[in-house]
Amino acid sequence: MQGLRIKSKRDWFIAFVFAFLFIYLIALKFQNRISELLWPLTPDKISLLNQPDGQGVFAAAVLAMTALSIGVMIYKKVKGKYLVFALVGGIVIAGAAIGVYYYECQSIINIPSECKPEGVSVTYHDERGPSFIDYALSEKTKDQIVNKVLALQPLSGEEKKELNERNDTGGSGGETSVSIWYPKKDGYSYLISVSMKDNVIYTCRGRSPESIVIYQDNGLLEVLEKMKT
């Protein structure tokens, strides 16, 4: 055991590198949960399917490593200024990772302004049937649907609460789904998916109820109804 003791700065550096790798692997186990914590910084039409991954886990690992480092420094009775350096350094690095995440999100949502969609699909599924319909779309209808989906605005928290009291998006019945996918650009791919049920337009960005975004209708429901007739 004597050979495993940390004796030099080099030993400390190696120990901290291995500790960070261990913490990072643990953070990976909670990647989905960490990703959902970033929803406030994430545009509403980005889901787990195309959300930039890695930055959130890295930021969480850095913050955990910072806390561990400060704990060790306190135990070793290191001068207070070094504690401040460690704290500020950890926050700056984690903040930079979140900044990269935000930049990548903006790059993804800018894809529709630079590229035309590769495909647009509208499907209907009724779990009571069961029945499934994949609608044939004209180019004009596709353009109308894309323009309406891109222009959708999420309801405010209060409006969402009021709507949830009148409707249940998780109930039984038919559901219409719209999917729009774009070609990969600069390493990013973009898929937009929204659903309509009981005249409510929404998208499930993740796995938790908090990840559901409900939109205000801007004429999309009318376009879809005309398409079905």
UniProtKB/TrEMBL annotation:
The keyword Membrane applies. The chain crosses the membrane at residues 12-30, 57-75, 82-103. Keywords: Membrane, Transmembrane, Transmembrane helix. This is Uncharacterized protein. It comes from Sinanaerobacter chloroacetimidivorans. The lineage of its organism: Bacteria, Bacillati, Bacillota, Clostridia, Peptostreptococcales.
